[in-house]
Structures are given as structure tokens and as C-alpha cells.
Fold this sequence. Notes:
With about 55 residues, this protein is an all-alpha fold. It has one domain (about 15-50). It has one helix spanning about 10-45. This is CoxF protein. Keywords: Membrane, Transmembrane, Transmembrane helix.
Amino acid sequence: MATEDKGITLTPAQAKARRARSVAIALALAAMVVIFYFATIAKFGPALFERAL
């Protein structure tokens, strides 16, 4: 190949929007993990911590 394809070049506004979307997705995923964790603790109750390992 004589010419190299550099791919898509984003404008600064597009790069900023992509970063904002990525941060929003990461926060939503982290919130879902926390919700699932506390829902599991609430479902099993204190007995979860008193079991034998």
C-alpha cells in the first residue's frame, strides 16, 4: 500500500463529545454495579456475612 489510511480524524468538538459520552457510560456502569451490590446484600441480609468460608 502506497498510501496509509489514518482513519477518521475527529474535530475537537467531536473528541470532547466522545469523551463526555464515555464518562457518562462509565458512571452509569459504576452506578449499576453499586445498585446490584446493595440489592444482593439486601436480598441475602446479614446472614451473608455470617456464613462459613
